[in-house]
Design a protein that fits this description.
39% helix, alpha+beta, five-stranded antiparallel β-sheet, Alpha-Beta Plaits, Dna Ligase, domain 1
Length: 412
Amino acid sequence: MSSTSLAFLHIDINSYFATLLQQETPALRGKPLAVVKEVDRTCIIAASKEAKMLGVKTGSSLIAVKKAVPQILVVPADFSLCWSATHRLKKLFESLTPSSELFSLDESFIHFAPLVRLYSSPLELAQKIRSEIFATLGEWVTCNIGIARTRFLAKLASETASPDSITEVFPDQEAVLLARVICSDVCGIGYRLNKKLHALDVHAPYQINFIPQQDLERAVGIFWAQQLRLMAQGDEPLFLQRLAEPAKQMKSVGRSITGWRLCNNEAMIKRTLYNLVAEVVHKIRRMHLAGRQVSLFISGEDKHWSNFITLKRHIWHTKELFYWVYSHLYQQWRERFPVIKLAVRLSLLESWYVVPQSLLPAWQKDESLAEACDTISSRYGLFAITSGILARGHRIHPEVAGFLGDKQYQFL
């Protein structure tokens, strides 16, 4: 069997957030860790290998986990540490091949076919990658590597194997893998889709092959019927096919925050909205973009409200975006309720080099001020200089987006 029949490698760092913290702080090694976004949060966003062995899962309630695993150690995430490691991983993969495709913070795909003259087999490349990750991120960091005909199968192989392993799936082994994994563990199959498949008595991707197309389309719709059929045959669904496409200009940039308790404090809500707006504008200015559709989403315990406005001209100043978010959208919200989540988005983005700039002296003054703030932020970080609205109290700092929806910004 030729080496090119196993065309893709999927590299997945084990328990990324927790493992990096253990690498950084040796006293945490070998102990069950539950990682939360910040102190006082009650949702676990990551668990160490030791915690997973005790049944702790991502998304679990901290209160429930503490009852089941009293020895669990709770630590806040270090997003800057994770971003630093991801940048180093990206640089490492690109040094090995120009065909690497970063999929998330801790995952990447590598196409083996262009490297067939450099390595005798995908297994040799995988062994080299594992040793290079060890040298780059530290001796406590381990990874899984799946090798298969498609990205989808390679990802399944790495995610279903034991930690720190290399798994090859040859074509005659694909059906076994697809029959062994459960649908809820497959990337791309969410809770609702999994529930619809259960109604068809489908619990593993391979079973989809035996469902008539009409029945599948009736249950999940035409689009998902096509995507699920591809998965059932070990082929790549659309979200993985798009990895090979050239990067496109972002069409929208958003930022949301979910609190740990309901809030009806107007001053705090205003402050939070400004905080989110400042981060959105920081991102679009770094990418030299401007937008003209402003959206606001507000969620409570069991209620939500949203609205948007499409402007006649593009904006790219914090002052302008906050004006539309707060004065025009937020203040239109009539049926008030305690808030748990806020989200701001600026859409219909275009390069600011192709949109007309205002000639008004006041706008030119705002642009000069924004440029000066950009210079300071690029050197000292976001919020090194900011409005008096954020002068006191806690600031919401940028968070890591797991699936790198903003990779175009992050890897400038």
